[in-house]
Amino acid sequence: MKKMLVMMLFLVIVSASCSLQNQKVSKNTKIAKNISTQADYEIPKDFDDLVANSKDIVKVKFIKNKDIGDNGSTTSEVEILKAYKGDLKKADTIDISEPWHLTNNKYTAVENYIAMEEDKTYTLFLSDAVDKVRPLVSMGYGKFSETLKEKQGFIQEYNLLGEIQKYDFLGGIDGELKTYQQIKKQVFEKYK
């Protein structure tokens, strides 16, 4: 009886961990409405501040989410297309930490972070790796897309992930959007 109970417990743990690894997001993934995840992070004063605080600056192609975590972040795999600063090389694949996760199968962003999309390119500003995973140097200000737009607002104003994926950044507090737009303009003037 004891062996059977241990075996059943083992199967529950294995199936639960497999289901977390197999979670996926799509344009139809609902956005969590009653959950607000906040974080302390440094907002760069300007472009020079962002560059100075970054260990690596790279242009990447998003490949896939490797691990949609339940601890506030998701590990994603990207391919380096260009390296502007740091020791990463073109064609390297690296893991990065994105500040979002799923809660009851609903998209939950830390602050207003919008997840990267498959096959899209981004310029990333990264910090030192922790356990071989590189975090963005400044949550919303560490990822820029040349083709996506930015807007004033909050993620909770939307119902589905597909509704926000046309945006690179949602500025929730006065001044955030303007700062982001000024930095973004300089990012794509310098890093082509």
TrEMBL record:
Q: Does the keyword Signal apply?
A: yes
What's the superkingdom here?
A: Bacteria
Give the range the annotation lists for the signal sequence.
Answer: 1-18
* This protein's record includes keyword Lipoprotein: yes
* UniProt keywords, alphabetically: Lipoprotein, Signal
- What is the name attached to this protein's record? Putative lipoprotein
UniProt organism field: Listeria welshimeri serovar 6b (strain ATCC 35897 / DSM 20650 / CCUG 15529 / CIP 8149 / NCTC 11857 / SLCC 5334 / V8)
